[in-house]
Inverse folding.
């Protein structure tokens, strides 16, 4: 017996897209085509690295060069009456050759200067100057010029412009022609010590210079046992002149020269001395 035909129903589309089920697994989304790709690091060429190493080497070499010192300094010496420049140069080199003095960091400038002053008493000040770029330091020496010969007991000393006994006369035979002062004060002189104050040196220098200008020929200059006194004798007068080294040099020298001229014009000569130590007053005997 035949089966009756059944009608197949076809569902018409409704216009809606059925929801799609996705697999929720470990799937990463594809990268965006608009995102820039990361740049790969390029290795620096060997030549560039070599240039960097050379630059670092040059910097280190420059620092070593600037900080190192050569033991032969430039010398600046104010007076060469006592020693030659080569003598001072040799002594300075001996101190700068020491290991700790071979660079600007460990150089002991004060010790080098003190050592030079001890070796050469005529040096009043010693200083070292370092250049930021040069390897040779500059040594500057201020020397007090020799001024007088001072005799004490049986010895004759060279006294400099600061009043110090720099050396015995026989130790520096090339120094000659200095004014001689006879020290009868009783003070025992020794080498490298203070013989008189700088003001006393300046006073005596003024007396000597002004006497020469006025035509008063000096025979002798004496420091007697009395403090601060200076006695001067000329070759043409029988009397001596008393000065006070602690007083005003210009006033006393003026009084001496004026009195000398007056006595010469009046044909009067003191028999013993002419005392000009008191300003505005002249005593004679």
């Amino acid at each position: 017996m035949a089966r009756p035909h059944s009608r197949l129903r076809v569902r018409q589309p409704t216009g809606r897209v059925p929801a799609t089920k996705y697999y929720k697994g470990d799937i990463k989304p594809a990268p965006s085509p608009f995102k820039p790709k990361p740049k790969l690091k390029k290795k620096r060429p060997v030549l560039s690295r070599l240039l960097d190493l050379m630059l670092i080497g040059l910097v280190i070499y420059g620092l070593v060069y600037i900080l190192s010192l050569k033991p032969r300094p430039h010398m600046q010496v104010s007076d060469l009456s006592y020693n030659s420049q080569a003598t001072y140069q040799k002594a300075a080199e001996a101190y700068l050759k020491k290991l700790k003095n071979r660079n600007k960091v460990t150089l002991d400038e004060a010790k080098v200067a003190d050592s030079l002053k001890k070796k050469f008493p005529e040096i009043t000040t010693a200083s070292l100057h370092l250049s930021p770029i040069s390897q040779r330091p500059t040594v500057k020496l201020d020397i007090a010029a020799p001024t007088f010969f001072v005799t004490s007991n049986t010895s004759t000393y060279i006294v400099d412009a600061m009043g110090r006994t720099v050396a015995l006369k026989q130790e520096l035979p090339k120094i000659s022609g200095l004014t001689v002062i006879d020290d009868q004060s009783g003070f025992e002189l020794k080498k490298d010590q203070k013989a008189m104050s700088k003001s006393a040196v300046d006073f005596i220098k003024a007396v000597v210079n002004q006497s020469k200008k006025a035509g008063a020929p000096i025979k002798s200059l004496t420091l007697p046992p009395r403090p601060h006194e200076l006695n001067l004798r000329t070759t043409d007068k029988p009397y001596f002149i008393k000065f006070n080294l602690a007083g005003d040099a210009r006033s006393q020298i003026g009084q001496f020269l004026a009195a000398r001229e007056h006595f010469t014009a009046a044909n009067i000569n003191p028999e013993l001395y002419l005392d000009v130590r008191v300003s505005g007053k002249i005593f004679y005997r």
Notes: The radius of gyration is 48 Å. The chain has a mean pLDDT of 85. DSSP finds five helices and twelve strands in the chain. The helical segments are 46-67, 85-96, 109-119, 198-213, 249-265.
